[in-house]
Predict the structure.
Amino acid sequence: MSALSPEASQPQDPVAVGEQAVVGTHADAAVADMRAVARWTIMATAAVGGLLLGGFPLAAIGKIHGRGDVALAAGGLGLALVGVFWAIWWTGEVLTPRFTTLRSLDDPSLADLRAEIEAAPELFFGPFGTTVDELVRSCRLHATVAVNLTERLARERDGDRHAELNRALTAARVNVAHSAARRRALLELVHAWQVRGALRRARVQTMLGSLLVVVGAVLFLLATDGG
């Protein structure tokens, strides 16, 4: 085993995970809610697409006369369908699985989350630092302390010293669990922010798709009305 620093060879006092576990739970719930909204949007948009494909053309087939009207109706129907597919495509991005790491926090789209963290780092990192790098180092340190104490405990034969090391190992394991919980909760929050950003972009693109649907429907109705 490689040599350990003096800091890594000493047990650390247990620390409380605090409210970070609650933040992580809320982040998971928020992701589920946002994806439920995305699924509902896709179903509603698909229903509009089904109506355009199956309803309008059959109902208006007898009202279209001449090549000009046919071209206008086909163009309007095609434009409306493009709008439908455009909205479904962008909304589907909300449901796409994401590979998220703590480095994802550096993404420009997460600038508002970084500002929140920088304003109150203790709410996100607790006693484990004020930056992502410090949190990661704390996780490694406490894991190293636990491993080191486990090895020392296995070699210790003195009863009093064995009991002392056992208490220290318990404290070290608490630190490992708490620091890992902070890291996991922060990761879940980053993931939730990514999904929120995707949902916001999807809303804008859905509005654009809806505009295409309206324009296409108007062109189709003009064709069936004889121009």
